[in-house]
Design brief:
- The protein is an alpha+beta fold.
- The chain has one domain (20-98, 160-317, 359-492): Outer membrane efflux proteins (OEP), CATH 1.20.1600.10.
- The chain has helices at residues 3-18, 60-72, 74-94, 151-218, 223-257, 285-288, 293-314, 359-426, 431-465, 477-480, and strands at 100-114, 129-146, 319-330, 342-351.
- It has a 4-stranded antiparallel sheet with strand order 1-2-3-4, with no helix packed on it.
- Helix 3 (74-94) packs antiparallel against helix 4 and helix 4 (151-218) packs antiparallel against helix 9.
Length: 502
Amino acid sequence: MNPRPTRSIALAAVSLLAACDIGHDYNRPSLDIPPAYRATPETAASAWPSTDWWRGFHSAELNALIEDARAQNFDLATAVARVRQADAQVRIAGALLLPDLNASGSASWQHQGLGTSSTSSLTGRGSNASFDFHSYSAGLSASYELDFWGRNRATRQSAVASAMFSRFDQQTVALTVVTNVANTWFTALSLADRLAVARRNLADADQTLAVIRGRFDAGTASQLDVAQQESLAAGERALIPNFVSLLEQEIIALGILTGQPPERITVQPGTLTALNLPLVAPGLPSELLARRPDVASAEALLIAQNFSITVARAAFFPSIQLTASAGYQAAALNRLITPGGALAALTEGLTLPIFDGGTLRGQLDLAHGRYDEVLADYRKAVVQAFTDVDTALTAWRYATEQERLQRIAVEIAGRAATIARAQMGAGTVDITTVLTAETTLFTDEDTLVQVRLVRAQALLNLYKALGGGWIEPDRPVTDQFPGLTPGMVPGGVALPVGGNLR
């Protein structure tokens, strides 16, 4: 039977089956995008963060700490390593689209000796003989799987989408690291301010205590008056070690964030009141999705899983493997490359799953289930982005109002404490009035410092919620992975969609 007609019929049948597209292009899921933020009117002007937004706070110490963190942070180094791993996976997946070519060569030698025979039939004498056998071969072999169903293409597309996910995730990690450094630095500044307030209040309390003791010596104040003021001064003094401890802990925390031992941290916190707070404002919610690296990474993961479904579906169809080999074989090296020593072979193999106990169906159901899970995570990331912006805007708005009102409260409490001390010196009020006025002033001043921290943190969270100046890369994915054509654009970066991989 001639195998050529049979082979031609089989290939023709497979070609017809190949016309059936078992994959599907990725389409961005429908999203519920509000027309405007809850915390701002639809007509509000936008002011997106710059890529180096932290410099707007005008803190040289903060700039230095963030630069150290961007260069040495361990979490960021781990994210960069994951990018390299993902790029390697793209190259591994892309190898499935190319033939596998191998070269081989061998040389063998065999010596065979024959023992002495008892009598030669011709000479009547014994004889010895030995033989040497040499064999040489060289060849090439190639194998290639015909990707009729797009399984190998989908595998590489999934790897490319995963590589883009790792890049977006790296940007998310970088944004988190920078904001963590800034938040730790702001907290250190606020603790330095609270420590200064406590020391200033202690000095005022000690001064009032000296006045009361003078009155006690003059017989115009009681021992109870002295004890009450001593209690107030002792309470202020007891706050100082705690503030010093908390401040030192924040400085120590800067070490791990900047990738160095805490002993290397030499910056000294200044004051939160001197910190510039640059204005930033969101645009429309629809613009936010292209500026959040975490949303882009969630969609890249969804695209990768979309191609994984194609891979699982393609496993139901037959796979065709072409194998070819050619070479030379001869008994002597100088006769190796001759027409008489040439060898060649070509084989075709087809594998079709018949019964697997439900493994393939389970793998396809698993891929669909994983896609639904990632889809829910993507939609959650979108809603979380809107939530973060609204939360930060609300916190900023009311913290700003609270700081304004708290400054007024401090001014009033300061005037009341000054009047109370003066009247106590004149003997027109008792110590209780002074104690009440001083306690109110001390509490209001400490609260003002904490409100300033809340306001600064709200602005910091708003920068983070708006993506921290992250913008779409200028270089498309086709420059990083040749062979791809631009397709879907999550977060502004071109990604391949089904059928676009050549």
